[in-house]
Structure formats: structure tokens, C-alpha cells
DNA sequence: GGTTGATATGTTATAGAGTTACATTTATCA
DNA sequence: TGATAAATGTAACTCTATAACATATCAACC
């Protein structure tokens, strides 16, 4: 058990499910889910938090799967491009997607105390941003929505999360 | 005249107004609006687009106002902390605020073709994100909202903007 | 009006994030 | 099986950002 979306859950089965979904998606779309790509996703899923590229690279290096930055960045590019992982811009870090395969615009709630990250759903075309865009004639192709604050566990005085 | 929020405007007077507002705010709040800080804000206002810290630093260096990264970063920290400038996370770049002094959560529309940036208003406590936050008990303190796409000028076939 | 404590600046060095370029290998598919 | 495209290995480098410490400047109080 670990923290996801600030709640407890069965980590092993959530990891298995995500990997299975990605495998299925890759098979269906003829994408190469190579050992490095799979391993990077596994690392992100296992830690279940935002990780820097070099932190991931350290793990890869320990396992003999590649030691230079491009190895990690290329795998991350693949995962991000296909929606299997997301980049948290505020942290220059990456996190596994909680529902890979589905087309979506993620929004993140990031705890500034324990670094836990929850993925929510954004709809950039609606709300303020959508209105501002359509008012000015701007066409939104991609949106980054990230909120920084305190997660429920850390609000309850406890820094005993994470 | 230049491009702001994808529209033409009187650049000189917009710059004067912003500087005056910041000066007034600093006087009222006993903040030191020092030469370096002022110059960095002027540079951002003059270019009226997102600029990297090192691009700003190059200008400072040419003027003998400091040549090392911390000089630029410290000035930018001051400007960002007090809401006189904003950081565009997706670009690792900074831009002058279009309405300094007012407490607000900015949202940005970034053109991927000409790099023009328009500042809009976000209300993180409302909409999807706010609902996701209150549902889980997360308290939002700060939000980053950035949309990438095509500005009206670039949509009209013309890459003739910026 | 000088002393003190806080705030701002100058400078060196280094850490962290990401890319370019090119050689080599491994898949894919005709 | 041979041609082509996709993926990996590796070295070198650029860009972004911070740590640490010395010096200078400001604010304000006796």
C-alpha cells in the first residue's frame, strides 16, 4: 500500500493494471514497448511520485540499462508522447499516468510538503481559459494545469505522509 | 507599437504605466525597487515577450549591471514574488505582468509558432480543478495554467507575427 | 550621527536539466 | 535476405538554476 491521489490503495495491482493497459495499447497501435521504455514506466509506477530524469537515469544505470541522459529522455519522450506518463512542469519531473491509453488533459494537485501528486481531469476548452482563448481567437492545442498546495494528509498537521 | 495579448497597442505608454504602478506599489509596501530590479523589469516590459534568464543577463552584462546568473535570478525572484512578473514554466522563461500590483492568478496563452504570450485570468478555486481539490481535501495555494496553441495572427496563415 | 542588524549585490563554483550529433544495433517488412 | 526505418550507445555540450561566501548598502534606533 502506498499513497496515490492522497489515498491508500493496492499498489501492486494498480501497477500491474497500468502496465497491462500500456502493453495492450502498444500492441494495438504497433508501438515498440522496448525494455528501456518498459523499465522507465515501471520505475515511475513503482515510486508513484514525480521523479527527475536523472533520478530515473541513476536507477537505469544501476541495472545496466543505459547510463547517458538521452537514454532516459528518449524513453520519457516516448511515454509522454503517448500519454503513458506526464511531465510536471513546475518540478521538471515526470510521473506515470493514472489512466493510460485514454485521451485526456491532466491537471495536477501537488503537495508542497510531501511532494505527493494527484492527477485530476482538466477541460481547457471550458472555463476561464477557454473563454479567454475563444475571445481572442487563440486555438488551444495543449494545456498545463498544475496546482501547488497542501494535500489532505499534510493539512492534518501530520508531515507523516509520503 | 508591438504585439501584446495578440493585439496592437501603444507600447511606450503601457510600459510607463506598468513601471509607475510597480513604483507606487513598492513605495506603499516599503520594498526596495533597486536599479537592477528596475532594469530587469524594464527589459521584460520592452521586449514584451517571454525571455530566458540568460537572455536578460546578456542585456544586463552589456550595460555593466552584473554579469553572473544570481544577479538575474535574484531580480527575477523579486519581481515574480511580488507579482510584477511571471514565470512561464513550459518555456523556463519570464514575462512582465500586464497588471502589476493586483493580486491575481495568471493564465497564459502561448503561441507555439511566434512565441507571443497573452495573459488571461484564472480562478483555480473554481471549475474542474477546484472541484477536484475540494473533493479530495487539497488546499490550493498557487496554480500554474498555461495553454499552448496558435495565436489568431498565426492561425491566419501568416507566420508574419512577432 | 554612528552602530547594528537586515537586506541587497558581486563573484566563484557547481549542480541539475535537456539537446546535438553521430556511430551502432535492432526491428519491420517487402 | 536485403533495404529501410526505428531504437540505442556514447561523448560532448548548452541552458537553467542554486549554493556559498564575501562585500556593500540600507533602515532604524538609541
Automatic annotation (TrEMBL), chains A, B:
Record's GO cellular component terms: cytosol
Protein name listed in UniProt: Zinc uptake regulation protein
The keyword RNA-binding is annotated on this UniProt entry: no
Listed cofactors: Zn(2+)
InterPro entries, per database record: FUR, Fur_C, WH-like_DNA-bd_sf, WH_DNA-bd_sf
Entry's cofactor comment: Binds 1 zinc ion per subunit.
Protein keywords: DNA-binding, Metal-binding, Repressor, Transcription, Transcription regulation, Zinc
Species, as recorded: Roseovarius gaetbuli
Keyword Lyase: no
Binding site for Zn(2+): 111, 114, 151, 154
Any single GO BP term: negative regulation of DNA-templated transcription
UniProt xrefs under PANTHER family: ZINC UPTAKE REGULATION PROTEIN
Family as reported in the entry's similarity comment: Belongs to the Fur family.
GO molecular function term, any single one: DNA-binding transcription factor activity
Amino acid at each position: 500500500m502506498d499513497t496515490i491521489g492522497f489515498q491508500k490503495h493496492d499498489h501492486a495491482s494498480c501497477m500491474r493494471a497500468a502496465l497491462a493497459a500500456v502493453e495492450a495499447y502498444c500492441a494495438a497501435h504497433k508501438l515498440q514497448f522496448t525494455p528501456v521504455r518498459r523499465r522507465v514506466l515501471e520505475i515511475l509506477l513503482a515510486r508513484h511520485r514525480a521523479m527527475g530524469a536523472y533520478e530515473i537515469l541513476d536507477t537505469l544505470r544501476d541495472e545496466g540499462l543505459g547510463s547517458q541522459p538521452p537514454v532516459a529522455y528518449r524513453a520519457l519522450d516516448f511515454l509522454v508522447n503517448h500519454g503513458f506518463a506526464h511531465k510536471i512542469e513546475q518540478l521538471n519531473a515526470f510521473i506515470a499516468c493514472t489512466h493510460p491509453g485514454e485521451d485526456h488533459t491532466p491537471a495536477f494537485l501537488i503537495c508542497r510538503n510531501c511532494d505527493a501528486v494527484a492527477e485530476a481531469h482538466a477541460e481547457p476548452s471550458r472555463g476561464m481559459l477557454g473563454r479567454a482563448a475563444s475571445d481572442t481567437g487563440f486555438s488551444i492545442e495543449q494545456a498545463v494545469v498544475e496546482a501547488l498546495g497542501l494535500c489532505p494528509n499534510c493539512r492534518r498537521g501530520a508531515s507523516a505522509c509520503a
